Amino acid sequence: MSFAGNKTFVIDPERAAESNAVVFLTVICVFWSLAFVTASVRVYTRAVVVRSFGRDDVFMVFSVLCGIGGLVSWIIECKHGYGRHMDTLSPSDFLTLLEAQFFQSVIEASFAFGFLKISIALSLLRLSRGNWYTRILWTLIAFICFYTLFSFITFLTYCQPIAGLWNPALRPKCYSRFIYRNFGLFNAACNIVTDISFATLPIPLIWSLQLQRRQRLYLIAILSGGYCAVGCGIARAMFIIAYVHEKDGTFFPWAPFFGALQLDIGIIAACAPTLRPLLGRALRLPNSLDPHRGANYYRAGKALDRLPVSGNLPHGYQRQNTASGQFVELAKGGKQWAPAHPDDSPGGSATAIHAEHVRMKAEVGGEKSNCEVDAILPPRVEDPGSKGVVKTTEVKVEK
Description:
Radius of gyration: 30 Å
Keywords: Membrane, Transmembrane, Transmembrane helix
Number of domains: 2
Family: Belongs to the SAT4 family.
Order of helices and strands: EEHHHHHEEHHHHHHHEEEEEE
Strand content: 5-15%
CATH class of the largest domain: Mainly Alpha
Distance between the termini: 74 Å
Protein name: Rhodopsin domain-containing protein
Strand order of the largest sheet: 1-2
Shape: elongated
Structural class: mainly alpha
Number of strands: 10
Main location: membrane
CATH architecture of the largest domain: Up-down Bundle
CATH topology of the largest domain: Rhopdopsin 7-helix transmembrane proteins
InterPro entries: Rhodopsin_dom_fungi, SAT4-like
């Protein structure tokens, strides 16, 4: 005996034995394992290696936790109906399948995708160096919040009461399949739009960085992995369209299948760029996505080597931090008078120092910007610790 909808009838035993559950569950588990490992390594890299665990990583953790809930739902669904013909399911299996589908829709299709997209947007904000770029990303974050909450509300209001979705005895009032299909299409379309946006937005920014071509191509290739998620989203949307006419949707559950793949591939593509501190040495890549680091830094020691030393002072120079508020601007090729030590009174002795390559122009993304460095001052004569050259390591270019 079998249950399909409200009908009970005898079925062919061979048909009842047919199942795709193992295939679907295996593929889902493989991709989810890759996504989980990639996300775990990302957390380790950000929290331990580079110690820059931020908001984007927090939202990625939320997305992964929701993804775990989605995986548990898939296991339950495959055990109670996915991969088998709908007309071969027992009443208890069919109702359990409907309940698992509901929780998967809420946890995975709504919140997991929402947290993932917000995480990607916050990661791209780390690269943002322009107001227009920042505004676009915050607009996308607001849009993601809107359609995520909208999807969540549509799932909650699909049937009243909610439990009536998997318990017909409650005699629920539910949307028609066409309205439910349209809500699903809207959610899929929003995910496709945001996937395309996040895969495309970083390309012009990365290409403008003063990095080696190999490094730029690597970053673009990794971030463009989001286009694979776009492909899964399009396939998911096509099967959602066919949802209302599907008579055996449990045997080939393509729509939720491609939805799960879209989430897993999205997590992998979002986490891959953050693994560069671990993989950079093997690939000969810098360890930071910050466009200032590596592209717009210079070694202050090279400038120090060209600064002449007054004959009545010990050889060497002392670094004065700009945070002290006593920054002395040293123009390229010019001369400035500066106190021999920051603590000296205005009437104290002063020494003329010639600045070479201390204040310079640098190109950041094709635009000119000032390079502000710490003032290089001669050490105090009476300071016994002033021996040799005190050399700064890197000086940041501020736009």
